[in-house]
């Protein structure tokens, strides 16, 4: 499991939109979303498909499968007015949280495959098929990827009342707590949940999971002291950390996060389990070279 910059916000469409008569619209939509994501200069106006129909011909909906203030919600609300200005059509953000993003994803899978409904997916989009026995959609067959919009690192945060200043003292605090320490997540099966379970299992820690229906409730109770700690994206928790309502102990990544450069990484504190895949990349590259040679 990789946590180093692994929150990938990607706009995706129902896959049936990618039909022979609409391939040109798909290419144009991809380029427009990518241009908006990197704030490139683009010419305003409507886009026409091979059929001559204007695209977009009506309001475009960006479905965020999580609560307001989540990372994908923040990005969607930055992106929406930029797309509206370029397309000359309204672009709205609609939150459909629940089931680790499955509710919102299902809504998009069932939407008309005309490009007017986009899913703001994150890495849980590819994780949930391995967690849920019965999925209401097929992440591969029912969707077509459009553009990667952003990456974000994770931070480990605690309530200021927790007497820990680094990860070593935190683990000592947890072990002393005798199973009475708890942690928050935006819900079961979310990246934050899996991150903490990985950390717990690796170090044999006993911490109670308290799942919420979104990041807002989890952060509210973290700063209020009802829960003691949680994983979260750096950018979603940074305002609370800067105001002293939560404390960062560590961030993921091989280098410190530019948003919070004063916070040491897990690796700096002797914890390398949170960035395992990044560490394996040199080995993976050697394997790739060998396999490529074998196929020639």
Features:
296 residues; five-stranded mixed beta sheet; globular; 9 helices; single chain; D-Maltodextrin-Binding Protein, domain 2; 2 domains; alpha/beta
Q: Can you describe this structure?
A:
By secondary structure, the chain is an alpha/beta fold. It folds into two domains: 9-150, Bordetella uptake gene, domain 1 (D-Maltodextrin-Binding Protein, domain 2, 3-Layer(aba) Sandwich); 154-278, D-Maltodextrin-Binding Protein, domain 2, CATH 3.40.190.10. It contains nine helices and twelve strands. The protein has helices at 23-37, 71-87, 102-109, 124-127, 167-177, 191-203, 215-224, 234-242, 276-295, and strands at 9-14, 47-48, 54-55, 60-64, 91-95, 117-121, 143-150, 154-158, 182-185, 208-211, 229-233, 247-251. The strands form three sheets. A five-stranded mixed beta sheet has the order 5-4-6-1-7, sandwiched between helices. α2 (71-87) links the parallel β4 and β5 (91-95). α1 crosses α2 (71-87). The radius of gyration is 21 Å and the shape is globular. The two termini are 31 Å apart.
What's the structural blueprint in terms of helices and strands?
Elements: E1 9-14, H1 23-37, E2 47-48, E3 54-55, E4 60-64, H2 71-87, E5 91-95, H3 102-109, E6 117-121, H4 124-127, E7 143-150, E8 154-158, H5 167-177, E9 182-185, H6 191-203, E10 208-211, H7 215-224, E11 229-233, H8 234-242, E12 247-251, H9 276-295
Parallel strand pairs: 4-5, 4-6, 9-10, 9-11
Antiparallel strand pairs: 1-6, 1-7, 2-3, 8-11, 8-12
Helix pairs in contact: 1-2
């Amino acid at each position: 499991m990789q946590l180093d910059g692994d929150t990938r916000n990607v706009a995706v469409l129902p896959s049936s939109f990618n039909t022979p008569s609409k391939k040109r619209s798909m290419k144009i939509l991809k380029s427009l979303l990518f241009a908006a994501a990197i704030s490139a200069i683009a010419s305003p106006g409507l886009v026409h498909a091979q059929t001559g129909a204007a695209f977009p011909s009506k309001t475009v909906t960006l479905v965020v499968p999580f609560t307001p203030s989540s990372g994908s919600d923040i990005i969607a609300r930055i992106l929406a007015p930029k797309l509206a200005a370029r397309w000359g059509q309204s672009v709205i953000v609609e939150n459909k949280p629940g089931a680790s993003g499955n509710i919102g994803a299902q809504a998009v899978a069932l939407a008309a495959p005309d490009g007017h409904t986009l899913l703001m997916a994150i890495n849980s989009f590819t994780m949930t098929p391995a967690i849920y026995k019965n999925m209401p959609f097929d992440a591969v067959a029912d969707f077509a990827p459009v553009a990667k919009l952003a990456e974000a690192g994770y931070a480990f945060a605690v309530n200021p009342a927790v007497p820990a200043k680094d990860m070593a003292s935190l683990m000592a605090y947890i072990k002393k707590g005798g199973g009475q320490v708890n942690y928050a997540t935006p819900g079961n099966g979310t990246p934050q949940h899996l991150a903490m379970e990985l950390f717990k299992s690796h170090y044999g820690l006993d911490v109670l999971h308290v799942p919420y229906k979104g990041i807002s409730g989890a952060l509210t109770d973290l700063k209020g002291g009802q829960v003691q700690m949680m994983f979260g994206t750096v950018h979603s928790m940074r305002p609370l950390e800067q105001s002293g309502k939560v404390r960062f102990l560590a961030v993921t990544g091989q280098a410190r996060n530019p948003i919070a450069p004063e916070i040491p990484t897990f690796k700096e504190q002797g914890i390398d389990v949170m960035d395992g895949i990044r560490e394996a990349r040199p080995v993976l590259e050697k394997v790739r070279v060998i396999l490529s040679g074998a196929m020639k």
